[in-house]
Amino acid sequence: MHETRREAHRRLMRRALEAAADSGGDLPVGAVVYDPGGRELAAAANRREALADPTAHAEILALREAAARHGDGWRLEGCTLVVTLEPCTMCAGAAVLARVGAIVFGAWEPKTGAVGSLWDVVRDPRLNHNPEVYGGVLAEESAKLLKGYFGRSPNG
Predict the structure, then answer these.
(1) The pTM is what?
(2) Do residues 121 and 114 make contact, with C-beta atoms less than 8 angstroms apart?
(3) Residue 7 catalytic?
(4) SS (H, E, C) 59-101
(5) Mean pLDDT per 10-residue section of the chain, whose length is 156 residues
(6) What pLDDT score does 1 carry?
(7) How far, CA to CA in Å, does 74 sit from each of 2, 3, 18, 133?
(8) φ and ψ at residue 138, rounded to 5 degrees
(9) Which of 3, 59, 86, 140 is catalytic?
């Protein structure tokens, strides 16, 4: 039986949720980068607190590691970035600059989201690259991690 795109996205998101659970007390966001064949290149959780680095978002860490492993320099063409929370402007911009083919994310982030909520950086027609976007994949599971971290709704 052939896996549908929706089923594949849910399977990939479960791995990002595993990565988020390993956030070590930081905001529980997980990101995984898959190559065009579906092989995992990198997985990361937020590490801003542990590294005292404002750029140590899960997406940035996963994109860096994936670029090092991918073998095509910094270009991640055809790769998929899967993240439990809608990327912010920094992470959305990094995904565009890395030329990822698709972004799959879980929970929407109306306060800082840059992939459709507050901004839509990745689909700006003025940019030279626009990845496909699939939002809301296992959104409830992703939001549950954040609610546990904040003790309330992350959107409240």
Answers:
(1) 0.93
(2) yes
(3) no
(4) HHHHHHHHHHHHCECECCECCEEEEEECCCHHHHHHHHHCCEC
(5) 91 98 92 97 97 97 96 91 98 98 97 96 96 98 92 50
(6) 65
(7) 32, 30, 25, 20
(8) 50, 45
(9) 59
